[in-house]
Amino acid sequence: MAERLDVLIVGAGFSGMYMLMKCREQGLKVQVIEAGSGVGGTWYWNRYPGARVDIQSLEYSFGFDEALERDWRWTERYAPQPELLAYANHVATRFDLSRDISFNTRVTAAHWDAAADGWTVTLDNGETRAARFVVMATGCLSVPTDVTFPGIDDYQGDVYRTSRWPHDGVDFTGKRVGIIGTGSSAIQSIPIIAAQAAQLTVFQRTPNYSMPAHNGPIPDADFQEWLADPRAYRARSRATVGGFWNEAREDAILIHTPPDEIKAELERRWAWGGFRILGAFADQALDPEANRVVHDFVAAKIRERVKDPRVAELLTPKDHPFATKRPCVDTGYYDTYNRDNVELLDLRADPLVSFTATGIQTQAASHDFDAVVLATGFDAMTGAIERIDIRGVGGETIKDHWAAGPETYLGLMVAGFPNLFLITGPGSPSVLTNMIHSIEQHVEYVADIIAALNASQAGRIEASPEAEKLWTDHCDQTAAMTLLPQANSWYMGANVPGKPRRFMAYAGGLHHYTDTCNAVKAKGWEGFVIARGDQLLSESREFTSYPPPPETMAPHLVEMAMGRVAKWLEAHGQPA
Ligand code: NAP
């Protein structure tokens, strides 16, 4: 076995890259294991046409180094995948990261070795590594679901998965193309494929809400504001619920606002584009009545854009409140359905039966294609972690530990799995936020923990089961206050058959979450057990650092939220 590492990092996306830098700062012996042939994670794998970030690039980039920030120029408000990948490579080159990354290698197992206060990690090339700490920088949306279709192996045409797109691209010119799925990946790729292909058929099971990106050059006012003081610009985004600036008005209550003012505010935000509409009113994510008003506004926008009223109706979401699934940000999505070469098929009315040698058979008809694109989504949040055979104290697997849904302390650690850190793990704000800001917060926090352990010559740190339970209950109750659990979303694990239902991200906001983590640290790592060999160094089994209740919340929202929590407690029992 190679020399023992201080830290083994799984994944060389933005999390793994930054973790590597923070470990180097402490002089630690560190190695990153990456399945792909290059850095970039999400932006390495997801090369489908039209792939681009849905947070403005000025905010969706590293903020830890002002010189790096000032030297890089984004060309568009929402950077396209090639530019994001170029950025990842730029960071890797600038900080000479690749020398500590093993590419084209997968971690298959990680077993806790109690005698060594560390992990034995197995790689798919048969090698093993010993490491004190393992950091799972494996991404929240990195493993495609196993979804398959009867007869797919008999299909003679080409099949492409958006999340595993060929590196040299695909030319659909003159082709008849089918695409299954209408989530973000499909919504971004459909306009581009439609413009190229002879014919595009979209197989939709559930429509999604999508807002226009209004992509283009970075608005000058925004750019000048950033240029004047990048630190202040970043601090402002980090101090928000989502880790990006969207003018959230925490004290604006839709149901107390006159209709013409509601309309004007929603129009203003729609015209600005992207996620800005999410911050319009404090009650839209909590109160079904307020949410319905925003739904009606978006439904009218769909009707405005799509000429065929039947198609517009089909494209309008009906089964979940607005923004309870991750909303999409598009360029020309709805207009694409006005093209003569695009057809929308409703799989609810006419279910998919099987693939055939020449295409897809639905109950009502057969459809021939030269190529089919699967934009069918990911085993989110837990998929990449559970696919590795991770065994903690006493040989318990993480999959077993999470049999009822993921349970973590702060989304960072799992009880019974010492020295194993999750970056943007379940139970952290992660996918509800600007991932880069969540990643930076987590990586810096994990680096602080490792430094503190080394300073006190401790061997290991572990989340206490008590704190894990309190935090997990807090996450559940926070989600229950909102409308978020009302959708069959991948946030809930609902897109993977048999996956336990639990709202997997922390819905309390990145700002409050960061304050909570800082309070935990200030209290001497509250909720954690720290030891060396048989010697217990410090032990805290409580979690008291709850985020403050929102002061500006309207009384009817407090009542509504507390009512939902009461129901949750009735169903799940009081926390320990
Ligand atoms: P997704 O949102 O989970 O969408 C998957 C789509 O496939 C859904 O429309 C789903 O329909 C459909 N589907 C799955 N299995 C099916 C089956 N057996 N038959 C028919 N339809 C099926 O996945 P995604 O589009 O890849 O996006 C996932 C997440 O990745 C996004 O929510 C976002 O967070 C992130 N993402 C971000 C961007 C960006 O803008 N930067 C771009 C892409 C992805 P049902 O809804 O009926 O299950």
Tell me what portion of residues adopts beta-strand conformation.
15-25%
Distance between the termini: 43 Å
Beta-strand segment tally = 21
Class per helix and strand makeup: alpha/beta
Which of globular, elongated, flat, extended, rod-shaped describes the shape? globular
Low-confidence stretches: none
* Largest sheet report: 8 strands, mixed
**Helix share, percent:** 25-40%
The helix tally amounts to 17
Mean of all residue-level pLDDT scores? 96
The small-molecule ligands in this entry are: NADP nicotinamide-adenine-dinucleotide phosphate
Rg of Cα set: 24 Å
Task: Set out the fold topology.
Layout: E1 5-10, H1 14-25, E2 30-33, H2 42-45, H3 66-71, H4 81-94, E3 101-102, E4 107-113, E5 118-123, E6 128-136, E7 158-161, E8 176-180, H5 184-196, E9 199-204, E10 210-212, H6 220-228, H7 230-238, H8 259-272, H9 288-305, H10 309-315, E11 328-330, H11 333-336, E12 342-346, E13 352-355, E14 359-362, E15 366-368, E16 371-374, H12 383-386, E17 389-391, H13 398-401, E18 420-422, H14 435-455, E19 460-463, H15 465-481, H16 510-522, E20 528-532, E21 535-539, H17 555-572
Parallel strand pairs: 1-2, 1-6, 2-3, 4-17, 6-18, 7-16, 8-9, 8-16, 9-12, 10-11
Antiparallel strand pairs: 4-5, 5-6, 13-14, 14-15, 19-20, 20-21
Helix pairs in contact: 1-14, 6-7, 9-10, 15-17
The structure holds NADP nicotinamide-adenine-dinucleotide phosphate.
NADP nicotinamide-adenine-dinucleotide phosphate binds next to helix 5.
